[in-house]
Each structure stands twice: as structure tokens, then as C-alpha cells.
């Protein structure tokens, strides 16, 4: 297995293929051929430049995404190592723990490096371990923003995402609350999670949306249409469970390509995502330093066009 990445910051090998044009004051992305993306960075909202392999911090909590991790010192070590390896986008949510994940991030990394982007989410409550119940009430969301700011020790959250659309509350009301917080200077950019193209378009009538976080990986492409929409509109696409979560990712082709490169199937799956689209920003999570290093090494892995197409089949 290739584990050559150390403390140096990872960089890409070439410039972005997904060129953008400025038309009438609006940035539009041009669809690139799937599998040809090679840009090492993406600018969320046009001004937040992040390396395209981020870190999802959910797995740093206790079992069932509940409570403190069994080894708190290890969780802090993983976060610090992620930054050492060049990761400058860390994704979390107030529901992870709940609250403990944001507290861990501040404990490990505050004062934050200048280029580090902390993205968090609100709008999903946690009655108990493994339980998730959306709450999109405007007053609740505004309280979520204020509490996340306090836990993360931030004056402004660079990317705040609506964790889930609450079917009991009109989306316009939920997003209206986030728009208020944005106008108050507490949020820089707003994103959405687990939404359809029609919901994205509906949300964009309320306020600018810069990113979408839907489940997506080499074995699960339910949101393919939403990914294409994001590329067309130059919205960041942050796939959660990019290597399948607890189920992992499996296929004979995946095994063959991993063997050919002497890497893990997870590294191949991440490399496949990075080459899939220039707006793709995977956020793999782990509570293991070695797994973290392996994941980051995937940014260096370049699949051949034939390998990528075989995996995409």
C-alpha cells in the first residue's frame, strides 16, 4: 500500500479542467467530461479556496454518533494530523455528539490556521443514539447558529449547511432564518444537505447557495443528477459516505484497480470521486490516523482513463 504522504501539504498535478465563465455577474460552471477533473482545489462560493479532499469529523464521536469518543486524546490527534497533511476543510454538525464534535474541533485546532475552513450544519435534532429528527423552525435554526459559533469559538461560520429539510416547515422559512444570520455577519456562505435539484432551485430563490452535501460514492450514485447540476452551476458537491460508510465500497473492478496500483480500494474510490467532477469535494471521515493518511494519499493517485471508465460502468 502506498503510504508516502507525510507532513507536506498535498497538491494536484495540473490546473482545473472545469473552466468557469462570468456572465451577467453570475459565475457559471461548464460541464467537463466525467473522469477528467484534475484541479487540486475548489473555491466554495467563489472565495473559499479548499483542497478538494476534506475531512468529515462525524466519526470522532462516540458509538451511534453519540457522546464523547472513547479515546478523546486520539480524536484530537486525528484532527491535528489532518491539518498537518494539508486538509483545510473540516466538516461537522451540531448533531454530531450532539455538540461534542464541534467542541473537539475547537479543543484540537483553535486558534485556527488562517486557511482552515470549518463547515458545520444545523437543523437535525438527536433524541438519542442513532436517532435523527429534522427541525427547521426559524427560531431553532438561529439558536443553532449562535451555539455553534460559541462551541467552535468563531465570530463567523464560513460554511453553514441546513442539515435536513424539515417537511413540517416551509423551506423558505428555514432558509429565511439563515439569511438573517448571514446578514448579521454570523454566516459567510450557506449550503444544503440531502436535497434534490428542485429543492436546490427553490432554495436559491431565497438566498445564494454555494454547496450541496448529498450521499454519493462509487457504489451509490442516487444523486447523479444533482451532481451534474452542481457542476453546471459551479456549486461545491461534498459527498458524505464517499467510501460507503460502514458498508464500504465493493466491486471486482475496484479490487483489480487497487491491486494494480498497490493501494486500498478506499483510495481508489476517493481518486475516482476526485476525477469525477471538478466541483467534487469528498469529506472522508475516520478516527484512525493511519486511515486518515491513506485517505489523504488518494489525492495523489491518478487513474488512467480506462480505469476510470471501467469503475464508472
CATH class: Alpha Beta
Let me know the average pLDDT. Answer: 90
Identify the CATH homologous superfamily. NADP-dependent oxidoreductase domain
Radius of gyration: 18 Å
**SSE arrangement, N to C:** EEEEEHEHEEEHEHEHEHEHHHH
Strand sequence of the main sheet, in spatial order?
Answer: 5-6-7-10-11-12-13
CATH topology value: TIM Barrel
The chain-level structural class is alpha/beta
Strand elements, count = 13
Residue ranges: pLDDT <50 for 5 or more in a row? 1-30
What does this structure look like?
- The chain has one domain (38-312): NADP-dependent oxidoreductase domain (TIM Barrel, Alpha-Beta Barrel).
- Strand 12 (211-213), helix 6 (224-233) and strand 13 (236-237) form a beta-alpha-beta unit.
- 35% of the residues lie in helices and 16% in strands.
- It has helices at residues 72-84, 100-109, 138-152, 171-183, 197-204, 224-233, 252-261, 265-276, 289-297, 305-312, and strands at residues 20-23, 26-29, 41-44, 48-51, 55-56, 89-91, 117-122, 124-125, 133-134, 157-162, 187-193, 211-213, 236-237.
- The protein is built from ten helices and 13 strands.
- The strands form four sheets. Strands 5-6-7-10-11-12-13 form a seven-stranded parallel beta sheet, with helices on one face.
- The protein is of the alpha/beta class and 313 residues long.
Spell out the blueprint of helices and strands.
Blueprint lengths: L19 E4 L2 E4 L11 E4 L3 E4 L3 E2 L15 H13 L4 E3 L8 H10 L7 E6 L1 E2 L7 E2 L3 H15 L4 E6 L8 H13 L3 E7 L3 H8 L6 E3 L10 H10 L2 E2 L14 H10 L3 H12 L12 H9 L7 H8 L1
Parallel strand pairs: 5-6, 6-7, 7-10, 10-11, 11-12, 12-13
Antiparallel strand pairs: 1-2, 3-4, 8-9
Helix pairs in contact: 1-2, 1-9, 3-4, 7-8
Amino acid at each position: 500500500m502506498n503510504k508516502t504522504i507525510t507532513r507536506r501539504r498535498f497538491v494536484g498535478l495540473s490546473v482545473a479542467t472545469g473552466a468557469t465563465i462570468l456572465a451577467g455577474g453570475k459565475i457559471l460552471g461548464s460541464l467537463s467530461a466525467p473522469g477528467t477533473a484534475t484541479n487540486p482545489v475548489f473555491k466554495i462560493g467563489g472565495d473559499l479556496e479548499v483542497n478538494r479532499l476534506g475531512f468529515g469529523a462525524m466519526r470522532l464521536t462516540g458509538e451511534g454518533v453519540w457522546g464523547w469518543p472513547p479515546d478523546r486524546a486520539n480524536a484530537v490527534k486525528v484532527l491535528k494530523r489532518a491539518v498537518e497533511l494539508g486538509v483545510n476543510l473540516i466538516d461537522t454538525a451540531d448533531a454530531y455528539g450532539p455538540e461534542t464534535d464541534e467542541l473537539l474541533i475547537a479543543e484540537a485546532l483553535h486558534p485556527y490556521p488562517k486557511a482552515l475552513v470549518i463547515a458545520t450544519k444545523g437543523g437535525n435534532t438527536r433524541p438519542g443514539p442513532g436517532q435523527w429528527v429534522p427541525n427547521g423552525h426559524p427560531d431553532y435554526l438561529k439558536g443553532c447558529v449562535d451555539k455553534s459559533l460559541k462551541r467552535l469559538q468563531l465570530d463567523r461560520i464560513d460554511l453553514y449547511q441546513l442539515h435536513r429539510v424539515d417537511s413540517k416547515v416551509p423551506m423558505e422559512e428555514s432558509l429565511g432564518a439563515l439569511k438573517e444570520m448571514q446578514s448579521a455577519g454570523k454566516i459567510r456562505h450557506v449550503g444544503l444537505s440531502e436535497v434534490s435539484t428542485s429543492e436546490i432551485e427553490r432554495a436559491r430563490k431565497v438566498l445564494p447557495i454555494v454547496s450541496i452535501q448529498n450521499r454519493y460514492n462509487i457504489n451509490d450514485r442516487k444523486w447523479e443528477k444533482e451532481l451534474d447540476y452542481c457542476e453546471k452551476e459551479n456549486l461545491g458537491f461534498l459527498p458524505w459516505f464517499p467510501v460507503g460508510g460502514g458498508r464500504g465500497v465493493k466491486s471486482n473492478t475496484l479490487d483489480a484497480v487497487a491491486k494494480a496500483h498497490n493501494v486500498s480500494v478506499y483510495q481508489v474510490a476517493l481518486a475516482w470521486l476526485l476525477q469525477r467532477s471538478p466541483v467534487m469535494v469528498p469529506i472522508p471521515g475516520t478516527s484512525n490516523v493511519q486511515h486518515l493518511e491513506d485517505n489523504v494519499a488518494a489525492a495523489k493517485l491518478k487513474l488512467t482513463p480506462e480505469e476510470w471508465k471501467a469503475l464508472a460502468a
